[in-house]
């Protein structure tokens, strides 16, 4: 623990020293030597390295399976050879087999002062580290959780609705990606880019991610509080309100009824009011459940989850109140709303889920509760003031822009604390990457948490902001965070809990297909827009005509469409996997594991 704290502090000091020199390079001719540019390149290399490691682990596992298949064939050949043996030879072999079957341990082979010797080869694996328990490889679920029907129904309904909105929202995104290549794809007003783009973003924000988080949160809140959900009726009402918000909001957007230029708040206030009421009901439900918990401690996940609900309700009120919504005041509110929505709703809530589902997957406790508390409070402190870094070099006060940049740099603290906590929790389980279909999602999500958040801090520096702002690079960054972090972590949580709720495992082949299609698609999407966006920003800085940058982006928009298509296909695969895991009627009856953990009431302690 002491060594990890020293490592954490030294890493933090390195970043702060790195940031101190980040504003010095202002010459466009030396743009590639800017600390923000160099830092972004290094972060991308980290993602690529992790992908290679996962691929090699999976490849090695596949080769091992081929080797095992060869051994099985040799055993079959040996069985065929037995047929040709004489009766006396067969009797001798059978007699030896019978002796082996009757052999029993005396009890002192491994538990006495004698030297441990396994002459019969009965011990398959020895683990000398008592703090690192055996890992659930997720090939088959050895432990099924018999959850009350009401709780299981709520979780399933939220996740099912979220899956639907994911497929619909990204279908719209896929169509928009194709429009970059074929602008004349249609001439229908309600299918125009200006109307469909907010449909895509709001659907995946408020439909997919929000419903998935809340659904997964209901299980965490009940389980870590060792009590029942306060009100299932309120959970159902909130589900109806949030889904109604997305449905009515999208119809209004496609009809041309919107909230003007407010990004991520295009839904008009009467519709968004439904979402706010749904959040208030959810917060009340979660709070009352935690307040009536059967244990004294409040688990760290609940800190993040309840805090994110409080902040988002405040955010919705501020973002939609008519006060200060004119002139530069609206710009300040827009920066606050946009960044708070991503950081204090999606990021904070999802991190709370990871603090439960990751240790549950690994069958071990979180590495450090203290690091979790540090990450929580620094997230609350620094994230609230960074929205203005989207308006560097704008008419906003220079001091306000500087504060946003400084607080963006401060975000290295919660990011490094959280990443260290998660990776140290995974320590000792790296060799299981090849066997688990859950761990790759968590690993990629955690790495993107570090990479995407750090890259956002680098992008806040004045020079890198000057190069990248208003270019396609921002689209790549938003997908790196909202997709690379939020989506991968939510998928990891879903693949962790749904099979245990229903006792039905998805096909590892299809889960692997989902993972690689999503990851390769995201990487192609991200790299093409980052590179093209950089060239576009440099073109503007050189004073070239705007249309030249449009022509310049054409090949990168093709790769954007390719990456987006792969991601959309992965969502279809995920939707099928989810349907398979929750389907009630099966051709063959499901045999539940003899090892079952019955939750009396609603849940048990962690």
From TrEMBL:
The keyword Transmembrane helix applies. The chain crosses the membrane at residues 38-61, 157-182, 205-225, 237-255, 267-287, 299-322, 342-359, 366-386, 398-424, 436-460, 480-498, 510-531, 557-582. It comes from Mesonia ostreae. InterPro entries: Cyt_c_oxase-like_su1_dom, Cyt_c_oxase-like_su1_sf, Cyt_C_Oxase_1. PANTHER family: CYTOCHROME C OXIDASE SUBUNIT 1, CYTOCHROME C OXIDASE SUBUNIT 1 HOMOLOG, BACTEROID. The keyword Transport applies. Residues 126-606 form the Cytochrome oxidase subunit I profile domain. It comes from the Bacteria. This is Cbb3-type cytochrome c oxidase subunit I. Keywords: Electron transport, Membrane, Respiratory chain, Transmembrane, Transmembrane helix, Transport. Pfam families: COX1 (PF00115).
């Amino acid at each position: 623990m002491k060594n990890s704290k020293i490592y954490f502090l030294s890493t933090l000091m390195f970043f702060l020293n790195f940031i101190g020199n980040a504003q010095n390079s202002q010459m466009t001719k030396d743009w590639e030597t800017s600390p923000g540019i160099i830092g972004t390149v290094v972060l991308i290399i980290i993602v690529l390295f992790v992908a290679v490691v996962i691929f090699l682990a999976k490849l090695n596992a596949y080769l091992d399976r081929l080797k095992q298949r060869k051994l099985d064939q040799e055993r079959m050949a040996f069985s065929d050879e037995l047929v040709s043996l004489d009766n006396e030879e067969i009797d001798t072999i059978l007699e030896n087999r019978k002796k082996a079957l009757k052999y029993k341990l005396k009890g002192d082979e491994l538990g006495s002062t004698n030297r441990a010797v396994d002459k019969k080869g009965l011990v398959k694996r020895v683990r000398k580290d008592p703090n690192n328990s055996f890992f659930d490889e997720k090939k088959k679920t050895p432990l099924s959780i018999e959850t009350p029907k009401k709780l299981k129904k709520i979780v399933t309904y939220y996740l099912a609705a979220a899956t639907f909105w994911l497929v619909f929202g990204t279908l719209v995104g896929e169509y928009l990606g194709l429009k970059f290549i074929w602008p004349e794809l249609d001439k229908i007003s309600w299918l125009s880019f200006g109307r469909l783009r907010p449909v895509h973003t709001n659907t995946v924000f408020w439909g997919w991610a929000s419903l998935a988080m809340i659904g997964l949160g209901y299980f965490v809140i009940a389980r870590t509080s060792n009590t029942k959900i306060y009100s299932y009726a309120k959970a159902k009402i909130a589900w109806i309100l949030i889904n109604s918000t997305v449905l009515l909001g999208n119809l209004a957007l496609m009809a041309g009824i919107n909230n003007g230029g407010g990004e991520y708040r295009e839904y008009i206030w009467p519709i968004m009011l439904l979402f706010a009421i749904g959040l208030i009901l959810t917060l009340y439900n979660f709070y009352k459940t935690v307040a009536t918990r059967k244990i004294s401690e409040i688990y760290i996940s609940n800190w993040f989850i309840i805090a994110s609900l409080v902040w988002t309700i405040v955010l919705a009120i501020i973002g939609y109140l008519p006060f200060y919504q004119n002139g530069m005041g609206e710009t300040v509110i827009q920066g606050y709303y946009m960044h708070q929505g991503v950081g204090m709703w999606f990021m904070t809530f999802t991190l709370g889920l990871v603090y439960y589902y990751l240790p549950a997957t690994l069958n071990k406790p979180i590495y450090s509760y203290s690091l979790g508390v540090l990450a929580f409070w620094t997230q609350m402190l620094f994230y609230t003031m960074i929205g203005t870094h989207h308006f560097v070099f704008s008419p906003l006060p220079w001091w306000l822009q500087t504060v946003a940049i400084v607080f963006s740099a401060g975000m290295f603290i919660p990011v490094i604390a959280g990443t260290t906590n998660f990776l140290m929790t995974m320590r000792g389980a790296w060799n299981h990457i090849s066997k688990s279909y859950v761990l790759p999602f968590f690993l990629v999500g955690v790495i993107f948490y570090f990479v995407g958040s750090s890259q956002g801090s680098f992008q806040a520096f004045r020079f890198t902001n000057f190069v990248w702002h208003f270019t396609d690079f921002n689209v790549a960054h938003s997908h790196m965070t909202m997709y690379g972090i939020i989506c991968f972590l939510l998928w990891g949580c879903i693949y962790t809990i749904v099979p245990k709720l229903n006792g039905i495992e998805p096909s590892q082949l299809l889960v692997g297909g989902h993972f690689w299609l999503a990851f390769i698609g995201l990487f192609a999407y991200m790299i093409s827009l980052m590179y093209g966006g950089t060239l576009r920003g440099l073109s503007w800085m050189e004073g070239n005509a705007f249309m030249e940058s449009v022509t310049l982006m054409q090949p990168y928009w093709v790769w954007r469409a390719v990456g987006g298509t792969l991601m959309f296909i992965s969502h279809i695969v995920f939707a099928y996997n989810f349907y398979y895991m929750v389907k009630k009627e099966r051709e063959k009856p499901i045999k539940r594991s003899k090892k079952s953990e019955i939750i009396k009431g609603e849940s048990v302690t962690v």
